Every structure is written in structure tokens, then in C-alpha cells.
Predict the structure.
Amino acid sequence: MLRAVLVLGLLVASGAASAATLTVTVTGIEARRGGLICAAVWASADDFLERDRRAASRCQPVDGATSTFQFELPPGRYAALALHDENGDHELERFLGLPTEEYAFMNDCDPGLLPPDFADIAVMLADDDTVTAPSQGNGCPAANEVRFSY
């Protein structure tokens, strides 16, 4: 009886949490600046840009003009940003309130001074790892791309 319960528990646990891979590609990195490229992902508008409420985040050393991050997440809606953390302190540096380190949002077609709304840049991650985004015009980044333009 105990064995049957354990097997049933394992089957339920393995089927309950399907994960998909969200691949975030950061392009346009000026590698000569060195430092880290950091990517962070949020799963809801309420959590968006709240440091302690990220669904996932990771940093890696700058190694060329492109960096790729993979996050194992449940299928759903996600928004991401990337930061070129030149001094490696895991913080966005500011001077007079304006960022002095490059950052950009995934799927952001109209970067400006203010952060976009979650709904405007969020992508849908399906359980087969496909990513879909709202239809955007020519010259916009791909759905899972963060494009720097120093």
C-alpha cells in the first residue's frame, strides 16, 4: 500500500509542474565595456520591476556582442529586461536619476525614458518552448530579443 501511494505521489508531482524554456537573447552589446550582462524575468504586471519579485534572474560575464540566457519556467506570460552592468555591482547605476548603464526590455519596440508597461512587452511562453508576442512593425526586436543601442 505504501509503495502504491509513493508511486502515485511521484506521478502527480511530475505531471503538476511542466516547465518550458524561455530563451532571452541580448544583442548589440559593446563588449569592450566589459562587466556583466544581467537578465531578469517577471511573470505579472503586479510584480514587474520589483527586484524581490522576479520569476528568475541571472548574470554572466560579457563575452562578445551577444549573450543568451535560458530560464526554466512554467508556461505563461513573461516580460524581461537586460542590464549591461559595467562595474559588476548588480545594480543599475544612475546620475541625477537617469541610468548611466545600458539597459533594455525584451520585445520593446519603442524604447524611451520611462519603462514600458508589462502588457506592452510581455510574451507568451508555451509548454513547447515557443514564444509569441503582439504583432509589431518592421525594425522591432524579435519576441525574445533584448536589443541594446548605446
